[in-house]
UniProtKB/TrEMBL annotation:
Originating species: Sphingobacterium tenebrionis
Signal peptide: none
Gene3D superfamilies assigned to the protein according to its UniProt record, in alphabetical order: NAD(P)-binding Rossmann-like Domain (3.40.50.720), Regulator of K+ conductance, C-terminal domain (3.30.70.1450)
PROSITE patterns hit by this protein: RCK_N (PS51201)
Protein name per its UniProtKB record: TrkA family potassium uptake protein
Domain RCK N-terminal: start-end pairs: 1-117
InterPro entries, alphabetized: NAD(P)-bd_dom_sf, RCK_C, RCK_C_sf, RCK_N, Trk_Ktr_HKT_K-transport
Length: 228
């Protein structure tokens, strides 16, 4: 996949390095030359420019990019401006960083649904979320093992846990199965609620479309399982 990461502070730089290491093409953009220079040997491409300037922004290869991540954190105004330019340019997928609740409300108001909170979420978690198909969330136990929530791949729908052979074929443990449903609140608004369908699923449990499976295993095994 092709990514553009705008803003190469601690979070943006770490995410750019991890996505590059996973075989993606990554363009890192920052207004500060020293940040760009520090990463030029670690990611695919680096560009020093002011992305909040519409002329400079439109010089980026946006049409050939799968995801643009606005990781600017120290300047909320620049973050919002760049995010708005992404919307105006009809970027395929936009992920933007929010530094506080008001900032997040502004991003929501301009139509951004995928928002990063680096103070709560790691670059490791986001690199997995972006690279693994269907991944909902993950928790890294160490450098090699994780617990992840993932939407059940279509090819496994209608099959039992035993039939798929999580342990035998993938060396993965199935911890539980979840389902997200929409419910109305007392004030008439809807919200998404996660419910546990099975405490510890039995071998004959049939996986259904739209369910979320919680699994534990080696990162390589999880990646193989989620590969389409």
């Amino acid at each position: 996949m092709k990514f553009i990461i705008i803003g190469l502070g601690n979070f943006g730089a770490s995410l750019a390095i991890k996505l590059t290491a996973q075989g993606n093409e990554v363009i890192g953009v920052d207004i500060k030359l020293e940040r760009v220079s520090a990463l030029k040997e670690h990611i695919t491409h680096t560009i020093a420019l002011d992305a909040s300037d519409p002329v400079a922004f439109n010089s980026l290869p946006l049409k050939n990019t799968n995801v643009v991540i606005v990781a600017i954190g120290e300047d909320e105004g620049a973050n919002i401006m760049v995010t708005a330019l992404c919307k105006e340019a009809c970027v395929k997928r936009i992920i933007s960083r929010a530094v506080n609740s008001l900032h997040e409300k502004v991003l929501n108001a301009i139509g951004i649904s995928e928002i990063v909170h680096p103070e709560e979420e790691t670059a490791e978690r986001w690199s997995k979320k972006l690279c693994l198909s269907g991944l909902v969330d993950s928790f890294e136990l160490n450098a090699n093992y994780s617990i992840v929530e993932a939407i059940i791949p279509q090819k496994y729908v209608g099959r039992s846990i035993q039939e798929i052979g999580f342990r035998e074929h993938y060396e993965i443990l199935v911890l539980t199965i979840l389902k997200k449903t929409e419910r109305d609140t007392l004030i008439g608004r809807s919200r998404i609620v996660t419910t546990v369908l099975h405490g510890i699923p039995k071998p004959d449990t049939i996986l259904q479309e739209g369910e979320i499976i919680v699994i534990y295993g080696n990162n390589r095994s999880i990646k193989e399982f989620l590969k389409i």
